[in-house]
Write a structure and sequence with these properties.
About 30% of the residues lie in helices and about 35% in strands. It is of the alpha+beta class and about 100 residues long. The relative contact order is 0.27.
C-alpha cells in the first residue's frame, strides 16, 4: 500500500479585488507564498501558496498543505472554503467576504 507524502487542500476562487491589491503592491507573480497564517480548521499556524491563474479575471487557487495524520480530512472538507481564504488573506490584503466569488 502506498502512503501519501503530502496532501493539499485546494481552494479555487475568483477575486478581482485581490488581483488589483497584489498588482498595486507590485506583487505580479504567479505564486505567492504565505507563512504563519491561521485558518479556522486548526489552532496552529500554517503555510500555503496562492496561485494566480489570471490577474485580469481574478482567478486564484489557494493550496494549503495538510497532514491527514493530524487533521481529519472529512472535517476540513466541511469547512467553508471561502472562510479558509478569508482567514489567510484578510489581514495582509484587506480582502473581505464580498471580495470573493
Amino acid at each position: 500500500m502506498t502512503q501519501d507524502i503530502q496532501t493539499f487542500l485546494n481552494v479555487h476562487f475568483v477575486s478581482i479585488k485581490l488581483a488589483k491589491a497584489l498588482q498595486e503592491k507590485g506583487r505580479n507573480a504567479m505564486l505567492h507564498f504565505f507563512y504563519n497564517s491561521r485558518v479556522n480548521y486548526t489552532d496552529s499556524e500554517v503555510v500555503g501558496c496562492l496561485v494566480n491563474h489570471s490577474y485580469s479575471k481574478g482567478v486564484f487557487v489557494m493550496q494549503i498543505p495538510i497532514s491527514t495524520d493530524i487533521v481529519n480530512l472529512d472535517e476540513i472538507l466541511d469547512v467553508k472554503s471561502k472562510q479558509v481564504v478569508l482567514n489567510a488573506l484578510s489581514t495582509a490584503l484587506g480582502i473581505t467576504e464580498q471580495d470573493i466569488e
